Here is the input.
Amino acid sequence: MPDVSVIITAHNEESTIAEAIDSVLAQTFSNWELCIVNDGSSDRTGEIIESYSERFPQIFFVNQQQLGLSAARNVGLSATTGSLVQFLDADDKLLPEKLQNQVSFMQGNKNVAATYGLGRYFKNNQEVEVEYPLPEGTLLSTLLVRNFILINAALIKREVLNEVGGFKESSSSLFSIYGCEDWDFWLRLAIR
Here is the structure.
């Protein structure tokens, strides 16, 4: 069984999905599985994903009709088995030592439910300065004001993901607004 399940969700990401997958393949930590949830893509995303799964046994995919980001992440959770979970958006990449650093930290700190780091932002392959301040005060008090945790920057224990119920898929929630599903998840995790 892999230690880390990496879950990439993709909807029409033919221009970026290969770089995201390559960043997982370049990890210095090797005990991972990669599940790519193709969320109803109508471009070449599915073909690209399939070509990787044919060449690398630790990569597999799930095709589904377009259900949205939260539903795709939850499908990825159901399809994987690692005790630690790494989410990765199809237009983002991981630094090569990301998993190794965070797995080592979590192995040395068994009571930690999740760990996260900062992100780097690029536009047209040029790094750009983006202010993404760290929390002031407690985790929960800061999260009540703003989301400061990038989903791609976190490594999370599966048992905690299961306890908080994954990602909300309901369109009746305030957090169904695109980009807020992560914030809702972090709030529920901090309360737990």
